């Protein structure tokens, strides 16, 4: 166990996934309406590109009207490598893909922290179905979780199957204006691309190296066991998942959800395990909101096996979720990665041990529920 002196001295922490090294303010209630006629994600409303949303009652999926990555685009052929400086430095590759929006619920004024357990299960099932629909037929994962159906009012599964095989699917949510989210309606995004993005690629190389160098062990399975034994960085845990402020956390209340056993992707989970994932997501996001009694912003993303990868890539992948929140001391005081942290390396304002202890103490009912009860 790390000495408590680390709470008070400057130090660096090793991140095995990369292979490198408050004040209290008044609680903020939700002022958003349940339905916003100007919101392009609310049921029955006109979307940004002119389409009309159905009157959905649960999770709803549609192809992003303004996809950052498109299925079809002008072809780009890199010039031949002729040994020139231009061919050495000015390199690019074409990337195509398909982007989806996943609305978590019809109500405009809710977040993951507010949603009922079964509503979060519906989101997880939607993620899993879309992931399975895009898996390569040659992947061993395609045998474990065949795509079924999407939620009512969403496109049928055949219509979302890609025209070409994509390499990776990134599922993520940006919550709050501080994280660049322009619409508060609860939703996330899914980008599928022909390339393997940088962050998952770096992690995957480390996961493969660890597996080769440690007799077939899986890094995050071993790490989850270590955290379970030490307990001091645990935020919440159940029999399938552990949520921790990782040893190498950069953001003040950074959290990582890790499958205890070796699970490569969403398709490896049983129905009961997805129920436990929903429980952990609810616990983490509720504790975030309770910490400063505000709508706690974050970027959250799932990392799992590539859609189309080698046997080694698939088998060494380990399902986990990153939460990167910017708040530091209160609902209005946030951390910025600037100066030394941008030019040299990140510094920690509080240790992961301190952050985990504070988040453990923020369980129980969502603060907004208490506020509403007191106002009635």
Radius of gyration: 21 Å
**Share of residues in helices:** 25-40%
Poorly predicted ranges: 21-25
> Counting H and I runs of at least 4 residues, what is the number of helices?
10
Order the strands across the largest sheet as they lie in space: 1-2-4-3-8-9-7-6-5
Characterize the overall form.
globular
N-end to C-end Cα span: 47 Å
Structural class: alpha+beta
* Strand element count: 9
Order of helices and strands: EHEHHEEHHEEEHEHEHHH
Oligomeric organization of the protein chains = single chain
What is the secondary structure topology, with strand pairs?
Blueprint: E1 60-63, H1 85-89, E2 97-103, H2 117-134, H3 157-160, E3 168-175, E4 187-193, H4 198-213, H5 219-230, E5 234-237, E6 241-244, E7 255-259, H6 271-292, E8 298-303, H7 311-316, E9 320-324, H8 340-343, H9 352-360, H10 367-375
Antiparallel strand pairs: 1-2, 2-4, 3-4, 3-8, 5-6, 6-7, 7-9, 8-9
